[in-house]
């Protein structure tokens, strides 16, 4: 059986190869940008973007890789290539960056991205229309008063009042607006300990739902009006379930 050190060395070699491939891809994209500039082609070509995303999803499925994860990676890559295509025409040189330019805090070590935002709304139908008109996909849940608005990996969970007293209390106190921002982290337990070490008041311990979402929440910060959740995914890559969302409102109101 291979040792942990040998496996990590193999991962390092693979990651180095990935960086080499990224560099090659980005150099080709710079050439594409120059051809577009010479021919007057538009920088963003939606048909090509859609084709890239759909084919890469299928390639991922063929290799046993989660298609949503693969799409997230390629959306990030497409955003970078688009940036390069535009930045290539700028006169100033790109800034120099170091391999380890900052001292990373515990949170900075494990935080990945904003996973989703939960918004309490007085009028769920009007809220759905607002996001749908912009092009978000409205995804129903098993709860008629909770829907997800998604576009390109960006997820906004909309929670209507229904007959939930915790949601009603939130809306009565604050009106429609963000209930919390969820940040994806590598490990929720590690993040909880880091919050405690930093003296950040927590609303909850680590909460695990039936789908394997592990979350820990801070209290509502009075200075900013922001409540944060930190989520790590230990189950299959699936959307947040309605039970989890309602539990957060109950915790905020002090019911659990």
**Main beta sheet:** 8 strands, mixed
User: How many individual domains?
Assistant: 2
Spans of at least 5 consecutive residues whose pLDDT stays below 50 are none
| Count of individual helical segments | 8
| Rg | 22 Å
Helix content: 40-55%
Form type: globular
Strand content: 15-25%
Q: Name the structural class.
A: alpha+beta
Average of the residue pLDDT scores:
90
Assign the CATH topology of the largest domain.
Answer: 2,3-Dihydroxybiphenyl 1,2-Dioxygenase, domain 1
Biggest β-sheet: strands ordered side by side in the sheet: 2-3-4-1-5-8-7-6
Terminal CA distance = 47 Å
Based on the coordinates given, report the CATH architecture of the largest domain. Answer: Roll
Order of helices and strands: HHHHEHEEEHEHEEEH
